[in-house]
Design a protein that fits this description.
The protein is of the alpha+beta class. It has 3 helices and 5 strands.
């Protein structure tokens, strides 16, 4: 697995979307894969919490016949935490300040998530499907 390529994707997303403060990538079981976080953030703890939250969201989507989980967002008084499914085996966490444009974030993550999935599965790059 190319950790440098993963970190570059996360940093590229941060450069694309104003308001992103931290990013992390975790396996579905909560183990940290890569992180671009401030010193005040515990990336291993963030990965574990994100996996638990995404696991619950996936089960909720399935139980309510809403299809495959794409993302979930938690809003707090100082910003938000967006959790994105990366295939079936991983997830990405994006933390944003209170000024982040979440709709822009969702649009910007589509291609990055596709490329991250390709890196994780070590597939040759291809164009992301529309509407992902």
């Amino acid at each position: 697995m190319d950790h440098e390529a993963l970190t570059l994707e996360m940093r590229g997303l941060r450069e694309q979307v104003a308001g992103i403060t931290d990013t992390a990538l975790a396996a579905a079981d909560g183990l940290l894969i890569a992180a671009d976080t401030a010193d005040s953030i515990d990336p291993e703890g963030l990965a574990a919490l994100a996996a638990a939250g995404v696991g619950l969201a996936r089960r909720t989507a399935a139980a309510t016949d809403r299809g495959t989980l794409r993302r979930t967002v938690t809003y707090g008084s100082h910003g938000c935490a967006a959790f994105y499914a990366v295939g079936d085996a991983a997830l990405m966490v994006v933390l944003g300040d209170e000024g982040i444009d979440v709709d822009h974030l969702h649009r910007a993550t589509r291609q990055a998530l596709h490329r991250i999935d390709l890196i994780l599965t070590e597939k040759a790059p291809e164009k992301a499907p529309e509407g992902v």
